[in-house]
Design brief:
heterodimer, A: alpha/beta, six-stranded mixed beta sheet, five-stranded antiparallel beta sheet, 10 helices, B: about 80% helix
């Protein structure tokens, strides 16, 4: 699959009075494939927004190179086929939803009001098109942001914290819209702190910390390594040593023992072993590795 | 050109809804309406005082509007992140800056136009002195060029200076360029002046814009000024203003193009 975004040793440095030259983004090698939803994660100050600004050619990299939809960073033409919705954007409050679309459309030379109507309908704002932005809720403002971002029919969308500060219903609406972008063949690059959201919708993710890319890959691969938690009764602690359970954590509980093993362990053999020794299985609970675990593990390892 | 016009239109829409500007405009219009009452308080010719007072109100309020309007324009767009949704589209930074500037000047034109209408009502319709009304309109016209020049200075400075600093800096430049220009200019031309003072005078009279030349209609401020060829004078003032505005905008564009936002 072709790369929508490719960066090689992309670096951004700033001069700091206290520390001299500081690398905000260090030798970043990103790879985002066309047609996927890519999650770009990292704690506050990790360099996410700086990276997005470099990819949008709003700021220049200090070193390295990058390509967006096959065009080198700084190529002005790419702005015609990409879009960006920043975190908590402000839109001119006196304008109505339709006027916002007309304003952003005029920056491209788009005057097709039928398309604007269609976009308002897509983001479920067609009934509110005469309301001014000042009358819009946060969720509605985010949706008009997505509508303006779709005006030029972009191949690649950059969304910075698209669900930040929204209520659960608005969350869901935005999530469904983002999923529809993938169905339409667009590439979506999301920078977010909403890990559960990212886990639900992203195909691949990258985790950046202190400007350094720590992890990058398919979610299914990165989230390998879950555990299976079992509680058993009627057995003695010595049994676990006899069964040679490697990489397990064993805790005594009132009913017996609670232990966990890697998800790839042969659970049936363990169950059979416990039963063969007169024990009883109380529960078997698979604990899937979550993105939050991976994120915390990655970020705290560097602290 | 298309993005510049779109940004300028949006800027006008925002500017004419800014409460602080509307309050200044409201106070100015109220003062213009009560201006005839103040003419009788002066020992000098009532008409001279009245026209001077009217032009003074227009000049002062327009200057405050021009500075307040432009110093926050770029910083607000960055702070509110609107700029990112615009320059991530096929819009060059210089187009963004020009759009903001022309928007500011258009909003100024609307507000000064309203003040001009009030003076026409006052002199032309209520006092039936159309000649004075036309003279005042010419004065307001000159002020419009002055304010466009002032806005370009504020816009240029706003590309690298914080809004509050810019407010006082632009205000200071305006005061020096309006009240102190003639003094510094004569000092600069004085061969007996000390070198340092002469250098300072040269800097002020050459580098800083000459706002005073747009103020000649006000006989209260410039009682001695005689213009033999008003058309030529106006043409020169317009050319000077246009060149200076161009220099300010080009400098602003170059700085803004390199600035990390």
């Amino acid at each position: 699959m072709a790369a929508a975004i490719e960066t090689k040793k992309l670096t951004k440095s700033y001069k700091s009075k206290a520390h001299g030259m500081v690398d905000v983004v260090k030798q970043l090698d990103l790879h985002v494939e066309e047609g996927e939803i890519f999650g770009f994660l990292g704690p506050n100050g990790a360099g996410k927004t700086t990276t997005i600004k470099m990819l949008l050619s709003i700021i220049e990299p200090s070193a390295g190179e990058g390509y967006v939809l096959g065009k080198e960073l700084g190529d002005f033409d790419v702005h015609k086929i990409i879009s960006y919705v920043p975190e908590r954007p402000y839109y001119y409050e006196y304008m109505t939803g339709m006027e916002i679309l007309k304003f952003y459309g005029s920056l491209f030379g788009i005057t097709d009001t039928a398309r604007m109507d269609m976009l308002l309908e897509k983001v479920n704002l067609h009934r509110d098109k005469t309301k001014t932005i000042s009358q819009f809720s946060k969720g509605m403002q985010q949706r008009i942001g997505l509508a303006q971002a779709l005006l030029n029919d972009p191949k690649l969308l950059f969304l910075d914290e698209p669900t930040g500060g929204l209520d659960p219903i608005a969350h869901r609406e935005i999530r469904d819209l983002i999923l529809s972008f993938r169905e339409e063949g667009r590439t979506v690059f999301i920078s977010s702190h909403e890990l559960s959201e990212v886990e639900l919708i992203c195909d691949r993710v990258a985790i950046i910390n202190h400007g350094v890319l720590e992890r990058q890959g398919k979610l299914t691969e990165l989230l390998k390594g879950g555990r299976v938690e079992m509680s058993v009764s009627g057995v003695k602690r010595g049994l676990f040593e006899d069964m040679k359970l490697t990489d397990s954590n064993i805790h005594e509980i009132p009913q017996g023992f609670l232990f966990d093993v890697p998800e790839e362990s042969d659970i049936n053999s363990i169950v059979d072993g416990v039963r063969a020794h007169g024990g009883a299985i109380i529960s078997v609970v698979p604990r899937k590795k979550r993105l939050e675990d991976l994120f915390v593990e990655t970020v705290s390892a560097k602290k | 050109m298309r993005p510049i016009i779109a940004i300028a239109k949006a800027t006008v829409g925002e500017a004419i809804r800014r409460r602080v500007l509307l309050i200044i405009l409201f106070v100015a219009v109220m003062l213009l309406f009560v201006a005839p009452l103040l003419g009788v308080l002066s020992a000098r010719s009532e008409k001279t005082v009245l026209t001077g007072f009217v032009l003074g109100i227009v000049q002062l309020s327009s200057a405050v509007i021009a500075i307040t309007l432009t110093v926050y324009m770029l910083p607000n767009e960055v702070e509110r992140r609107t700029i990112y949704t615009i320059i991530s589209k096929p819009v060059q930074r210089y187009q963004f800056l020009l759009g903001k500037y022309f928007g500011a000047v258009s909003a100024l034109a609307l507000m000064m136009g309203l003040m001009a209408c009030v003076t026409i009502i006052e002199f032309g319709i209520l006092q039936n002195d159309w000649a004075k009304g036309v003279e005042l309109l010419q004065g307001i016209g000159m002020f419009f060029i002055q304010m466009s020049l002032l806005a370009s200075v504020a816009m240029c400075l706003s590309t690298f200076v914080a809004p509050l600093v810019n407010f006082f800096l632009t205000g200071g430049i305006y005061l020096i360029g309006t009240l102190g220009y003639a003094f510094f200019d004569s000092f600069n031309k004085n061969p007996n002046a000390p070198a340092f003072s002469k250098g300072l005078a040269w800097f002020v009279s050459t580098i800083l814009p000459n706002f005073a030349s747009y103020n000649v209609q006000n006989k209260l401020i410039n009682p001695e000024t005689m213009i033999t060829n008003p058309v030529q004078y106006a043409v020169n003032a317009v050319i000077y203003g246009a060149v200076y505005i161009m220099i300010m905008l080009i400098a602003g564009m170059l700085i803004f193009d390199r600035r990390e936002v």
